[in-house]
User: What shape does this take?
Amino acid sequence: MTVTGANIVELDRIAVNEALRVVELARSADWERDTPCAGWNLRRLVAHMTAQHHGFAAAAHGAGLEAAHWQEPQDMSEPARVHRVAATAVLAAFAEPASTEREFALPELGGSFPGRQAVRFHFIDYVVHAWDVAAALGTGLELSDDVLDAALATARLVPTDPARRGPGNAFAPALDVSAGSNPLEETLRLLGREPHRWPVRS
Assistant: This one.
């Protein structure tokens, strides 16, 4: 699936729904599991995902500069529930007519961006975060080849400038990509993840 302004909202919806699916696989004993996000257990990762959904939804409505929208929830006693509320909000915001034609203020990324580009940022983030959750749980992702191809096309556009990678930034430094890597593996390695360290359990 090629990434265009016309279909980026649909690509994002697919990625967010897959993240919802894997988050809701977690059971009470799973929330303290380590994740590919260094220093974050699964509960903290889902809190971050929840905050990002609320922040992007606010940005779609012209309120992205209000810091309160980007704060992680105080109460994460029911992580899957609070995450679903946030995911529902961002999907509804992006589905509004002409949402991709608006300007989104994204303070964590240092400015304002056309809605089409902002939704693309959210899309690649949720392909990767869906994998982060799946990896922590030892399960696989269910994303079509078209979606994974679109994710790879997006990952190849993410700047590799060291000043924009590493601690405090959205992604870790890019890793070398082995010959024969599939689109998901290449996407993950371009964005600093090491998929071989998180095998799917049989």
Observations:
- The two ends are 29 Å apart (CA to CA).
- The chain has one domain: 8-197.
- The chain has a mean pLDDT of 92.
